[in-house]
Give the backbone structure.
Amino acid sequence: MKYITIFLFLALTVVFSCDNTNREFPVNVTGKPGEILVIIEENIWNREPGEELRQSLTSFQPALQQEEPMFKLFNISPSSFGDFFRSNRNIIYVKPCESTDSASVQYKNDVWAKPQSYVEITSPDIQQLVRIIHNNKNKILDFFIVTERKRLQDTYKTFREKEIIQKLSSHHISLVIPKGYQLEADSTDFVRISSETPAINQSFLIYEYNYSDTNVFTNEHLLAKRDSFLRSHIPGTVPGSWMTTEHNFSIVTNKLNLNNRGVYEIRGLWKVQNDFMNGPFISLTTVDKKRNKVITVEGYVYAPKSDKLEYIRQMEAILYTLQVTD
């Protein structure tokens, strides 16, 4: 009996020291979008493991005018991690744990709050900790990007602009448009939807044209089409000005499988020709094979006095709900 008692004590010590998550009914998350709380010992945070996390999670968002980190990190020691911090929306807990044989990374949701994203990294020593963070840092980054996007999408689905969504069905597409947007233009091949305040403009453009062959999926062709539609439909406020692509800025492209559909993504900057307005955009292009049409749906941001990252993430969350309908 004595040995059994000792064994149980040791087992419980391991459980509470290496896995002390709380599964009680979660409260609502706190903290701002794009923030991650990192629970880690200071001497580890200031060494290679902390550097690996910072290098990945604070890398700059591509295709913005200024350098903006993907996430803002705040670190505290495990001894300071009390109830006040448990409701943070994004948490990384780095746990050195000698009782384990190998390092591991676990991805969890809604551990202490909802909707919460939680990554737990456990390792018996510093060397393995550095290695496992290095090997998984892109996956960790993607985990938080996707979960931040899903939070937005869940909110938008709850507060939809149903009238606009219904009108988009005549263009054979579905987008989850949240409350606050207005339908500014709606023609056979072009739609503009905007949310505008004195300081910020977030707009969606939808345009389509006949599909010829797969050669349309090149930057040169897609941006030429983009510039043509923008010049025709988005004039500037100054006479002789119009919206176009900033071709002196690097374009970032990506091929996605989005909602079981192949999509070509372009990120870059727009500008107003013969004026000084500019900002970031993100566009998605796909083919409606039933109608033999190329469809582009894009969002752009104008916020001259603000950082742009969270605004472009909001638009990305909406764009990523894209579906082509019958």
Summary: Residues 1-17 have pLDDT under 50 and may be disordered. Residues 23 and 111 are 6 Å apart (CA to CA). The chain is about 30% helix and 30% strand. Helices lie at 2-18, 42-45, 48-57, 83-86, 126-158, 162-168, 219-233, 309-319.
